[in-house]
Amino acid sequence: MRVTRRIRWLLARPLQAGRVPSRAGKSLATLACLLLLLGVLLSLALGHWRSTPGPFIQRMTMNGHWLRVPGPATHAAYFRRHVRLSGPVKHAWVVVAPREGFEICVNRNPCGRWYLWRPTRPFQTGLSEGGQLLNASPPTLALNFPREYQWSSHRNDWMPVVLDVTQHFRPGRNVVTLELESRSAPAMVKLDGEILLWSGERIRLDTDSEWLAEPVPPFDIRHDWTEPDYSDSSWRPAVDATLSGESPGDLHFQSFDRRLLTTPFEGSWVRSPEARPSDAVWYEIDWDLRGAPDDAWIRVATNRTFDLFVNDRRVMLPLLGNPDLDSGDWLLGTPRAADLPAAPELLDPDEVGSLFVGDRFESPRHGDPSSSVYKDRWAKEKQWNKTRDKPWATHRSDLPGTYDPIKEEGQDVMEHEPVPPQPEYHEPKALGRDRAIGGLLGYNIRSMVHPGRNRIAVRLVPPLSPDGYSWAPQLALDGGAIFRDGATASIASGPGSCVLCRTQGPSGEFSATVPAERSGPARVIGNRWPTTVYRGIAHDPSLILRQKLGWVVASLLGSALVAGVMLGLEWRRLRREGQEPWAALDQAARGLSRFLLPPLAILFAALLTEASWAERHEAILFRLPRVWPFILLGTAASPALLCAPIRAAGARLARLPGTRAWAPLLGTVLVLCGVLRIYKLDFQPLDDDEYASCQAVLGIAEVGAPKFVPEGVYYTRSPAYHYLVGASVWAFGGNIWAMRLPCAAFGVATALLVYRMAVRLLHRPWIGLGATLLFTLHPFAIFSAHLVRFYQQQQFFALLAVYWFCEGFLWSPSQRYRYLTVVAFFLAVISQEITAIMAFQLLLGLLWFGRDAGWRCNIKLGIAGAIAVGFIVLDLLVFQTRCLTRVEGVSPNVEAAIKPHFWDPYNLVSLFLGYSRLHVGPSLVMVIALPLLVVRGGRVVWALLFFMLTGTLLTNLMISHVSLRYQYWMITIWLLVSVCGLALLAERIAAWTRVRGEADPAGVAAVLASPIFVAFLLAWSPWRIVDSYDCKILNDSTGAFRFVRGQLRPGDAIAANEPHPHAAYLEAGRVDYDLTVPLLQDFVMLSKGRLIDRNGGAEVIASLDDLIEACRRHDRLWVVVNREKFRTRGKNIRWEYPAARIELFLRKNCQIAFRSYLWTVYVWDASRGQYENFREH
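Predicted structure:
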């Protein structure tokens, strides 16, 4: 607040020096501040509209129909389509619109994928085509994702994926396969595609009646279901979901001209007639455009790494990681060895009691553990690395530009560090040659071309090795542009074009420019052609920066000019009415300042919404060409909101809390809060941690103790929560409603408490209603309120402790509220033990805010606190000694505990950012209003700020785990402070611009705050809450195990991968094996000489041999696998994970019996008489 006053005083001082009355000077200073703010916001809006190097978004029309599998709705689907080709393929492409995840294969070869991840992750996470990402920036917050939001999935079908699949088809029999996965049933897909043969024949691949579909593929021991020879005679025709009315709609968008991937390459090879192997070669071609294109693209085929220039500006890509294009010439350093987090410790098997001879040492018995760290070798890599091999290769056939430049190795190796002896390094001569083979890459160059002549230049970089390449450098390119009227333009290196070339020697000298030699068409029948890879939007950062700076200057000058004209006209009008000059100037400045408030609020709200949606599929809406003009038009018309009827309505709303209509309005919000938390409460599957709490609750209801299946294993954590829910189960039965309803009730009680705190402590009912509404619609709060877990109960009691602390220590030294503060704190801790860190906050708050009530009262309060601390210590001792079981070893699955650390400093801002930028808007308003909150908020606001900031700090420094759920209890305080900041900001701005004769500016404050509060609500994406009740937000373990339960026969056995044996025990009624690879010791215990799961008592399977032995014991073995834990989601197995061999064994020997979201049920059936050992491959 003082800073704001100082700025206004400095702006008004020159006017006061010229004997301008202080009132007029302050009014002019306020007007100048508002004009500056308007200019900045307007420049940001214009920059988003005209200068952002974002993709070209427009509607897309797709052929084909939405298809689903026949029968009941499923969350997974498999599709096949046979294609017989009479000749070689010239070009083939597909456009896939999935609901929601997919993987497409052609003749068993994976061509593209879009794996399904949590909606809290950015839109298009899991997409294989990086160039088609709308937002290539890393997520704002990605430390440790929360369990989930109460959101439906991203609308992946809005942005179909375009794929070039030319190289995968062959003459004769072919098959196209699609594997789908969706949270919402049924899983559906829409595909548009075409195959062009060299003969000119075109074969459509649209989704139609020729596609076959099944919920799971029938097992074939000889062939994989993606192979052409796989027998699909039992498959059924796919069902047209468009005709049945189940389709998600036909709204599709494209971010680039899809002709880049759907048209054959038209360029011809060109070469330099005088290039030497060690030279860099430049190729240049001119492209004449009759106007500014809506979209323009270029494809470059080379056999070297290259740089691309458009109009003498080097092309850059807004991609993750290295922003450079495709030049191996810009390497900053050589690859370095991976630094281990700790030095390896070599253990002698004789000393640790190993019984396996193969584990014993050769002679000599001890080796050097540092021999695997080849720092000396990498330090010499400057001399050794004579190839262009990439240290981290990709599956894109060694495309240029796929490496990451890193720092010099010398920065990581200290001079005093001893260099261990290394073996001799020998390099075959064949490895001394550069083996980079180039590729076919496409770029969108819309932002870098202009009407008239454009110069396209490609620089093929010289080889790193002195021996050069074993082939001559050559280039082929083509491109296209589309204009607003539908006309097109094209360019190609071939007949009718003039491609110039020149060479650049090792010392930088250039040769004379000569025409390039044409060596024939790039595409010929029979030659293998690389897949076209779309790299994304090409842009020049300096050009974008100049454009944005231009918009800033234009916006500031334009705003000042228009405001000056309006101020002069208003001043003249007031002078004609007989007012004094300075009084007229003061009133004109205040009236113009008031006139600017609605445009400022609208623009600020629009920018807040755009920033909040940047990582979601809703960001597409802000990239449509007509959205920002519509927003700017609404901004220009927004001063009409200051008309008398609207201001009067705002003033009446400000007085609404004192009327009879207030109670029904509050009741409606609370009822909505309850409905959102209990609607379809039993539809969502249980989370991993929920199963542990369910076991404890059922044990309490049955025997009075939180007992698990193995003898002597108890879950003593959070006794207040588990015994309360256990009482509910004892009273109403062991069903999911009895377990989840208490959390939903605490959610509604928390909403009511938020409102009461605003009314009792802040005396601001509207702030309470606004914060309650935001909490009601908060997707994380809705989801957390129907978990069988203690977070909602912890939030309620922690917030209750803060409320009673303010009542007992801030307002008056009420002993009753002080005792209640201790009780609430105690209940919060035994609801979630890590809440014990709140004791530090209460002690500091007592010293800072507390009022002395006398030594007798203080002694009584100390005794009550000591009793509470004693019971808390007892609870912690029981938790540490009796909860679960003693650990048999050490595993990376570390539970959160109170332990000082400084692991992830960035997590300090996680509450204020939120995953998917959920909290960005309110947090920004809170930061802007922070001076007002400190100056005008009072002791209660200070206390709320204290608990929020110290709670964030202590949670991140004292709790040894990074997760937003440990800060969940502070979300309510953050909401109260943010809404209070918005109210204070609106009221003060309305007061600063108050015109003469105005009684109460409350109506203006309501007009100013309403658009920003609507932006807060839009940031929550509430429409996705409605759709979320029909989709499986969490992985569907319930569906998988209930299917197994319905299929069990006598003698069958069930195996579940860790940590889900307790899920199998609760859902299927039994569990025999715990599949845990690698072995996580803190999930198992030793019982009677066997390792068993500590939750369900299942025998541990820790290796492939154990699984084979389990198959030998049983005629039928059900293996239920969570693909999120097994890591492999698509066809290609991820061999870097330990369970890869087991997964291959399951695929080869077991049949997929059922699929649900992220779960696969395999069945081993010995009666089939088929067995294939892993070692046979």
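Summary: DSSP finds 33 helices and 35 strands in the chain.
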